[in-house]
Amino acid sequence: MTEPLIFEYSVPGRRGVELPEPDVPEAPLPEGFQRADLPLPEVSEVDVVRHFLRLSQMNYGVDKGFYPLGSCTMKYNPKINEEMARLPGFARLHPYQDPETVQGALALMYHLQEFLKEIGGFAAVSLQPAAGSQGELAGILMIRAYHRDRGEGKKRIKMLIPDSAHGTNPASSAMAGLRVVNIPSDRRGNIDLDALRKECDETVAGLMITNPNTLGLFDENLLEAIDLVHRCGGLIYGDGANMNALMGICKPGAMGFDVMHYNLHKTFSTPHGGGGPGAGPIGASERLAPYLPGPIVAIDRERTVRPDEPFYTFVWPERSIGRVRAFHGHFGVFVRAYTYIRMHGPRLREVSEAAVLNANYLLARLRGIYPVPYDRLCKHEFVIMGKIPGTPIRALDISKRLMDYGFHPPTNYFPLIVPEALMIEPTETESKATLDAFAEAMRRIAEEAREDPERLQRAPHTTPVRRLDEARAARNLALRYAPAPAPQPASEPR
To answer: Which domains does the chain have, with CATH numbers?
Structure first.
C-alpha cells in the first residue's frame, strides 16, 4: 500500500472550501507580501479526507496492535479516560481563570496529588513537571537546593547513576551542574555494592536509581544501596518510569526514596508517543517536600465554609525551586490519570500483578530461543539478546522482520549494557492469545535466521515503507520523502 503526496492530487482550479464574502472592507496587501504562485495543493475536500485517512491507516498504535516497547509502557488506554478529558467543563478551562471558577478542576488535581502520595508513599506531590525527564530535572534541582541550604552545595557535586538506569538520568544530572559517576551492575543485574561503596563520600549529592531497572529486574541490593548513600549524606532519586510493576505492591517512599517522578502517560494510561502528551509529577519525602516546584493545590481552610465542600487554591511550598513550566501542568493528562485511578481503586495492585505475570510468561516462551543475559524472575519487562548463534542476524533485523508479522518492534539496543538488546514489555492489557502469537512470531523469525538470513536482513517486506537508512536520515536532514515500492505478492505473514 502506497500513498502519493497530497501535491500529486492537485488539479488547477480545484477547491475544497469556499470562503464567505468578508463583512469588513478589504485592506490592501502590503507590497512584497503578495505571491504570484501559491505553493499549496489545489484539492477537493474529499481528496483531503481520503488522503489523510489512508495515511492514518498506515500508522501503528496501541489501538491497532501489540506494542511491546520496553521501558515505554505502551498499554491500552481505556476510552472512558478520553470521555472524561473531553467534558466541556474540563476541556474549555483557561489557566488564568480565578480559582473560584475552577473548583472542580482544582479538586481533581488535589485528589490526584493525594492518590499519588498514597501510591508512592511520599509526604507531598507536585503535578508541575510536564514529562518524566522534566520531573527528573526538577528532582535533581531539589536535591541540589537541599544541600545548598545545609551549606554543602559546593562540595556535594557527584550524582551516582547505575549503568542500568534510564538514559535521561545522566543528562538531567549534568544539566543541574552535577558530575555523573557511573556505577556498574553485578552479574545478577543489581547495582554493584562494592563499586557504590567506593564512591560514597562527602562529595555525593545523591544516587539516581531506576527500580525495577531497565533490565526489568527488581534490585536485590536496593535497601543496602539506599542506606549506603544516606549514611554518607546523599539523597535518593527514584526514576518512576517503571512504576507499572509496583502499584499496590511496594512504595518507593517507604523504601527510602527522597524524591521520585511518576510517568502519568505510562503507568496511569494516557495515549503517548511522538513527543507527547505526558506528565511527570514528583513525590517527595518530608525533608524534600518544602522544595517541590509550585504551585501545588491545597485546601484553603479560611475560605472553606462547610467541611464537605472545601475551597481549593494554589499554594507554594516553603522553599520551592519555583516553576518548571508555565501554568499548572498538563491538565488533560491529569483528568485521564485521575479517571484511571478511580476506575481501578484498590485493584491497581492487580494491574501490576498482571503486568509482571505477562512479562514472565513471555520470557518463559522465549527462553531457549534467544539468549537471556540476566535469567531470573523479571518484573514488568525483560531483556533478551537479538542474536541467533551461527547467523549474521542482529537485533535490528529481528525487529524489522516482526513488522511483517504485524507486531510493533520492542525497544532496540537499550539498555546499553546488553549487546544486541531487545527490551520487551507486554503490559497488563494483552491477552494470552496475543502473547502466544508474538512468541510464535519470534520463534519463526529465529528459524528464518538460520534458513534464510537474507530475508531478515531485507525486512520489512509488507509495510508501506521498506527498510530505511536510519543513520543517513539522521545525519542528512535534507533528505526528501520518497514513496515506497509497490508491495510484493502476499507470501509474507501479515
So the answer is: 80-346 (3.40.640.10)
Distance CA 129, CA 283 (A): 11
Is the predicted pLDDT of residue 142 greater than 60, yes or no? yes
Q: What is the percent of the chain with per-residue pLDDT over 70, rounded to a whole number? A: 96
Give the DSSP H/E element, type plus range, for residue 210. strand 204-210
Find the helix packing angle between 168-175 and 132-149, rounded to 10°.
40
Judge contact between 192 and 186, C-beta under 8 A.
yes
- Mean pLDDT, residues 396-410 taken together: 96
Q: Is pLDDT of 256 > 70? A: yes
Angle, alpha carbons 353-379-250 (nearest 5°): 65
Cell numbers placing 65: 496492535
Distances (CA, A) of 492 to 18, 271, 386: 46, 30, 21
Residue-level pLDDT at 363: 98
Confidence at residue 487, expressed as pLDDT on a 0 to 100 scale: 46
Predicted pLDDT of residue 490:
46
Average pLDDT, the chain: 93
Contacts of 470 (CB under 8 A, 6+ apart): none
Rounded CA separation 347/259 (Å): 25
DSSP character string of 301-312: TTT--BTTBPPE
Strands (E) located in 80-129: 124-126
For cell 507554594, the residue is 316
Nearest-angstrom CA–CA distance, 177 and 157: 8
Comparing 489 with 177, the larger pLDDT belongs to 177
Tell me phi and psi for residue 394, to 5 degrees. Answer: -115, 170
Give the position of cell 482544582: 106
Cβ neighbors of 447 (< 8 A, separation 6 or more) are none
Residues 6+ apart with CB under 8 A from 332: 85, 90, 91, 277
CB 422 within 8 A of CB 370: yes
Quickly list H helices, 256-384.
264-267, 331-344, 348-366
Helix (H, G, I), strand (E, B) or coil at 383: strand
Q: What are phi and psi for residue 295, nearest 5 degrees?
A: -85, 160
